[in-house]
Structure formats: structure tokens, C-alpha cells
Amino acid sequence: MAEGITRITVKGFKSIADECSIEIRPLTILAGANSSGKSSIMQPILMMKQTLEAPYDPGSLLINGPNVRFTSAEQFLSRMDGEVMGKFSMGLEVKSSLSFNETFINKPQSGMGIDEISYNDDEGITILWPEMTTEEIMAAYPQWGEVCLEDSPNNLLRIERNRCFLELKLFNISEVPFSGATGLGSIFSNAILSLIHVPALRGNPERNYKKTSVGPMFPGTFEIYAASIIHHWQATEDTRLNDLGTALERLGLTWKVRSKKVDDVSVEVMVGRFIHETNGNSKDLVSIADVGFGISQILPVIVALLTAEPGQLVYIEQPEIHLHPLAQTAMAQILADAANRGVKVVAETHSSLLLLGIQSLVAEGKLSPDKVKLHWFKRRAEDGVTEVSSADLDKAGAFGDWPEDFSSAEMDADARYIHAAEARLESN
Questions:
Q1: Alpha carbon 416 to its chain's center
Q2: Who's near 184: CB < 8 A, 6+ residues apart?
Q3: How open is the CA angle 199-205-209, to the nearest 5 degrees?
Q4: For 83-183, where are the alpha helices, taking DSSP H only?
Q5: Backbone φ and ψ of 200, nearest 5°
């Protein structure tokens, strides 16, 4: 998993009617106005995640789950000229050499189904569809025909669905599968299952949190795991607990986080009442429910970044939410620390201060510009379709072509105030 997911491609999903493809680097920023398509580029992979994690077989695609919630395909399928499109596609590139692209089709009587999937590796492209016959498989892929008939002329090849993937399997005469002709699906499944999702809505601070597993996989959304991970770090004297306190101190929130077992099923999270350590305040801790809302919202973000392994993708919606402007700038260092460890951080943000903080780190030589990719989402005025503009940072932290309205809003507000104040002074 060292390199992890390197590209995400989506077409036909919500406002992304035309194909959009984004490169994933250690620190990937998704920016743009509300409803511009930032979340839409990530929601298909979240659908696949919840499909793979479901405790039952939900069919080809679980559209209503813990990560993404829809009740009808029409809510997420793109519209063209007022008509709902019947299909959407999504693809992933892993390790910069393996990729798949899958098309899902809306079947009104049975929900979303798989229309076609193509796998691309060093040996070429393999295209599969559900009704593919043995004869069609052998004609398209003679090499598998040779494998099929090698041991017995009674062997046959068949397409089977494994949750949201199609696999090519070899059967014997008794209809028992005894080998897989394509094993790429498991590679992509593992990449998707390892994804850590920190949503924008992270719940209210609780006095007691349910005990959970502590990884390495985190089904559903991540915020429910943070308390138990903190408790585990404390019990095992993991240095990441101190790293967590250092990060929170950098944000100006607190300097210490500890946990306390309430019973066999719940944990209490305690935080330092002061921002910095001083003489005698090491035991001055209060429940996270009794401090500012911002700590409970940023805690899952930092814990996720410290938990993730190199190559693992952490998708964070609005990491800056409920943070003071100074903390938004400081948040850049925390994201950069994870990126420098090899974690794949995808941050969806509205904060120009966060972006400025990232630019400053690059200019200071603390973050390589090669590790950063910026994607700006914008909808065309004439038809509402999303377009993506991408940019790199140079060694000075500057970027080239980039829509001006990301940072111009603050300048416009400043100019409006200055002009209004000058006019009022002149009128007196």
C-alpha cells in the first residue's frame, strides 16, 4: 500500500456529467464554491467502500449507508437537457500502474447494477460484463481459454459478481470455482477498504464514547473510532498520543488529551483545560464535553492523520470547520506532517488561509511542491456541469493558472469596507 490510490475518475455523477479526473498526491486539495462538485468526485468511491463493508451482500452498489446517503438513483445520476442519465462511471488508479473503470447502470426494478468493468494492468486491458458467455470470454481472451482447457475440456469460464466488482472465474464440471482468472478486484477492494473518511459532520462531543476496534480498517466514518484509538495509545504508551497533544497545542486548543475507561463498553475523553503546559496543570483535565466545540471537531481529523499508514488515503471534509483563522493556517502543518510520512491526504476545503499555510510551508522548504496537487471545481454557467482546473505549486509556493475567486472574496470584502469607511469619513 506504499503508493496507494493515485487517481480518481468520475463521469455521470451529479454535476459531473462530463468525465473529470483528479490526480491524488500526498496532499491533495479540493476547493471551489458550494455545490461545485468537490464532494461528488469522492462520493462514488465512498459508495463502493460502504458496499464492500456491509455485513450482508447489498448488491452491486449500496447507495444508502454510513458514508453516503441516497434513497434513489435519480438523486445522484447526472441530468442532460432535463433528462436523468441512466448510467455513471468511476475509476481508480492504484500504484500508478493498475487501474479500473466501472460503469453502473440504473435498473428501475432492481436498483444499481454493473454494466461493464475494465481492468488495466501491465498485461493490457480486460473488459468484463455480467452476461459474458464462456465462448465470448475465450474469444476475447484466448490465453484464458488455454488455461480453461488445460486440465479438462469440461472446464468453463464464468463472470461472477463480488459486491461491486466483476471477476473472471474458472469452474470445473461440478460447477465449483477452483481458481480466479482475474485477481485485480481484490487489489482495488483493499485500497478502497483502507480509505479513512472524516466527514464534515462529526457529531456532538460526548461524555462517554463507545469502545471500538483500533484498526487497521475503519468501516463507516472515522469519528466513532477516535476515542478508542486515544485510549489504546495511552494504554500502550504510544508516542502518537504526545504527537496529538502537540498538534492540538499548535492549533491553540489544548496541550494534553487523555482517556479513562468508564466500563467495558465505553471510554471518556479528557483534555487539558489550558492551552499550554504550566507548573501544576498536568492533572487539570476536563471532559471534552465541557470545552469548546472546536476540539471535538478537530480531534478525529488529527487522530486519523496520525493513525494512517503510508499510502493510505484519508479523505477529510472541511478540516478547518469550527477553527479560528489562526488555527486554520496552523492546520496546514498538520496536514503536511502526514503527507511527509507518505499518507495520502485529500482535503476538501473552503479556507483560503489553509491554502496559504500550505503555500508558506512549500516556500519555507518544509513541504516539497511535488507532494501537493490543487484541484478547483467550478460549474459552467450555461449548463451547470462541473469542470476541474488543476495546478501545481512551484518552489516558492506559488501556483499558475487558478481561478481567482478562491481568494478574491476576502480581498473584495476588504475593499468594500475600505471604500465604505472612506466615503463615510468624507461625508462628515
A1: 37
A2: 98, 100, 119, 121, 126
A3: 90
A4: 134-140, 142-151
A5: -70, -35
Same domain, 252 and 352: no
Residue 132 domain-assigned (yes or no): no
Beta pairing partners, 88: 104
* Containing structural domain, residue 234: 204-306
Beta strand ranges found along 239-395 (DSSP E): 257-263, 266-272, 285-287, 313-317, 344-348, 372-379, 386-391
Q: Are residues 273 and 372 in the same domain?
A: no
Do 256 and 399 belong to one domain?
no
C-alpha cell at 404: 481567482
Q: Examine residue 216 and say whether the peptide bond preceding it is cis (omega within 30 degrees of 0).
A: yes
**Mean pLDDT calculated for residue range 47-68:** 97
pLDDT bin (cut points 50, 70, 90) of residue 292 is: confident
| Measured distance CA(189)–CA(98) in Å, rounded | 13
Query: How many Cβ atoms from other residues are within 10 Å of residue 213's Cβ?
Result: 12
In a domain, 142, yes or no: no
Answer yes or no: do 112 and 6 share one domain. yes
Q: Answer yes or no: are the C-beta atoms of 64 and 42 closer than 8 Å.
A: no
Question: 37 and 14 in contact (C-beta within 8 Å)?
Answer: yes
Do 317 and 292 reside in the same domain of the chain?
no
Cell 444499481 sits on residue: 112
Residue 147 inside a domain? The answer is no
Q: Is the full-model pTM beyond 0.70?
A: yes
In this structure, are 292 and 255 located in the same domain? Answer: yes
Between 162 and 405, name the one with better pLDDT: 162
| Rounded CA separation 170/179 (Å) | 6
Mean pLDDT, the chain, rounded, equals: 89
Same domain (yes/no): 264, 363? no
- Which of 254, 287, 306 is where one domain is finished? 306
CB-CB contact of 279 with 294 (8 Å): no
Question: Given phi > 0 = left and psi -120 to 50 = alpha, else beta, which region is 175?
Answer: left
> What contacts 234, CB < 8 A, 6 or more positions away?
241, 258, 259
My answer on whether 321 and 399 are in the same domain is: yes
